[in-house]
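We modelled the chain as a single entity of 386 amino acids. Its sequence is:
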Amino acid sequence: MGKELSFFEAASIVAGYGIGAGIMAVPYLASRNGVVSALIITAAAYGFSVLLHLMIAELALGASCARGGGTQIVEIFRVYLFRGRLREALTWIFFALMCLILTLNLSAYVAGASEILTALTGLPGLPAGLLFSVAAAGVVVLGLKALGVSEKVAVVSMLVLFAALAAGTFGAPLHMPQLGASWDKGALALFGAVMFCFASFFSIPQVVEGMRGRPRAIRGAVLLGIAINLGIVLLVTSLALLASREVTEVAIIGWAAAIGPWASVLGSVFFLLALLTTYWSICYALLSILRERLQWSLLPCWLLATLPNIALALSGLTGFLGFVRLAGGAIALLVALLLVPAYRNYRRGLAGGALAVLPAPFSAPAWEWVAFAGYLAMAVGSFLGA
């Protein structure tokens, strides 16, 4: 299938990667901080996230135009970060690390989806995991256009689910949430959680690949994709705060207790779609990284991107999934921080030339430090919220 993405398909890839089960942790943290501070923190997280994701898009577009460059994270670093005699060695080491971490992350999604399908359908774990894997991996092999269309359908479906949950919420007794503001360590924990909900690093190269000739459209798609996630975060948090007698650490538990058990079913379907959309984006990113670095054809790279994570997930060795999630968050943070010096090298290479994706007012070096500070705060917040 073709690689040209429509505007909403590209935005859906960004949104689909970022939307995840972690969104259900935000209401509890927001309830500890108060509505005013939660809104300020969420707005700040959106700003930091947009800045860094546009920097990634700028780098991916620049790397794709560089001689021998590609759009994926590994090739971006090869072009703009790794230098000297160790350039290729560092590239291969980072490539191996990325493949390992992404495979572990994918195995976590398969295992989690298997549990949800078992709860919803009564299927045993192995058939449930295989069912999810076939649906997930099948979309990836069809190419970027199929990925964009599938993400679009899934994102719209999740919005419909939340419309139903909203209707149920306003039919139940409502509770007034805490309106004040708290600026203790709970604020950093909330900031880290919201930043994690917006993190769509590995989806940006796919957007660039599908919209290579439309830099301004790339910018708009990134802004819209993260804005969709912002809207869902605000919607979930508002509804959970209004409905729940007690806001639980996993918001859907207290939420469902207030409006009915059917909400648990819709919440499970949402989690399943969230796992599916993120699996699609990560698996396609891994497939693209393998093809760019190894220069192999589609089929062997697809098998290498899918079979190991499926086998790992279904082998029963899933007790370390908490570690996998931490490792996945760590590599995402590592990528974010490495992108700042990579972006600085890219700007030096432009020698004052015009930016293609990032708006010109954000080209000053100070904005690189702003992005660095935002993701450093995310790391601290994630540690405090662990």
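As a brief sanity check on the tokenised model: DSSP finds 15 helices and no strands in the chain. The chain has one domain: 7-385.
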